Amino acid sequence: MPNTSPSPSGRRAELLAAGAAAVTVVLWASAFVSIRSAGDAYSPGALALGRLLAGALTLGVICLLRREGVPPRSAWRGIAISGLLWFGFYMVALNWGEQQVDAGTAALVVNTGPILIALLGARLLGDPMPPRLLAGMAVSFAGAVTVGLSMSGEGGSSVLGVVLCLLAAVAYAGGVVAQKPALGSASPLQVTTFGCLVGAVLCLPFAGQLVQEAGDAPASATLNMLYLGVFPTALAFTTWAYALSRTTASRMGATTYAAPALVVLMSWLFLGEVPGLLTLVGGVLCLAGVAVSRSRSRAAARGTAPGAVPEPRPEQAGDSAR
After folding, report:
1. Contact criterion met (CB below 8 Å) for 128 and 165
2. Region (Disordered): which ranges (predicted)?
């Protein structure tokens, strides 16, 4: 029987994609802590615009240094849609929604996003839905629900807030699915940079609020806004695009279920919010579900090299998120 184990180069590509996904999840989890701090001084639109401007500036400088240039015409449709939905609308809706509902309710609603990504990916991109992916997403979603219920406060939710968080989840899913085809002809850095620019242009009507609120905001809130732009936006969205270009949208969406567990840990470390037993159980379920969804069957493990054919055999690309 011929040896069909992954080649060293294929294994390296798999590890790089997994590392990129891990960086993304950690930084996105840290964003929830920073949003809570900056959101006390900045309105939703102003915070989104400040974050996007900081991210676009950072990415623009990197693009100039690397001489990336303008993406090809074939990538612009996906870049424009992801920029409008994910970088623009999603950030404003999420910031606004989190001011209307408690953190637990926001987490519950927004975590429908990976499920929507899987459904849209199967419908529009032809992503396969292997049993391990479905089982892992089910376990992780149960964990996210557990974390959300344990964090929900009494009387802290509104219909408007729930609707805004749901719209944010839909925009997130649509942006990811639109971004995937663009990565077939443009680099992850190009897709992220120009998507961020599109989102910033969409948020320009909030420029007046940003200038006014920046004059009154404490330095800590402004620094948190800049952190959101440089790390959870510029860096994390680029590593996300890098990993997404090497696997399916459904599998990448499932990976983000590790975020609730990390949010619990970071809130404990940086905000002094000691999690209860139910919260810890939910976090463990989230991580266990991600591990299942990113694992490979024995047949897949004997397949060809990871990353060699990212579509339609996603089990061979980026299968280890940690």
Report:
1. no
2. 300-322
317 backbone dihedrals φ, ψ, rounded to 5°: -125, 125
- Say what the pLDDT of residue 136 is: 84
Rounded to an integer, the average pLDDT of 77-95 is: 96
Nearest Cα neighbor of 23 from 256, 312, 286, 267 is 256
pLDDT in tens, 162-180: 889 889 999 999 999 999 9
Q: Can you give the pTM of this predicted structure?
A: 0.81
> Among candidates 146, 65, 153, which has minimal Cα distance to 102?
153
User: Are 297 and 315 contacting, i.e. CB atoms less than 8 angstroms apart?
Assistant: yes
In contact, 82 and 182? CB cutoff 8 Å: yes
Tell me how crowded residue 123 is: count the other CB atoms within 10 A of its CB: 10
Q: Are 283 and 265 in contact (CB under 8 A)?
A: yes
Half-sphere exposure of 99 (CA within 13 A, CB side): 16
Query: Which residue carries 């996105």 as its tokens?
Result: 28
- Report which residue type is found at 49: L
125 vs 128: CA distance, rounded Å: 9
- For residue 310, pLDDT beyond 50: no
**In the predicted model, is pLDDT for residue 216 greater than 90?**
yes
**Pair 146, 288: CB distance under 8 Å:** no
In angstroms, the CA 178 to CA 181 distance is 6
Q: State pLDDT tens for residues 226-275.
A: 999 999 999 999 999 999 999 888 888 888 888 777 877 877 777 676 66
Strands (E), the chain: none
Residue 114: which of 238, 259, 279, 229 has the closest Cα? Answer: 259
In angstroms, rounded to a whole number, what is the distance separating the alpha carbons of residues 72 and 244?
19
User: Of 120, 143, 164, 133, whose CA–CA distance to 295 is shortest?
Assistant: 133
Cβ-based burial of 73 (10 A; exposed 0-12, middle 13-18, buried ≥19): exposed
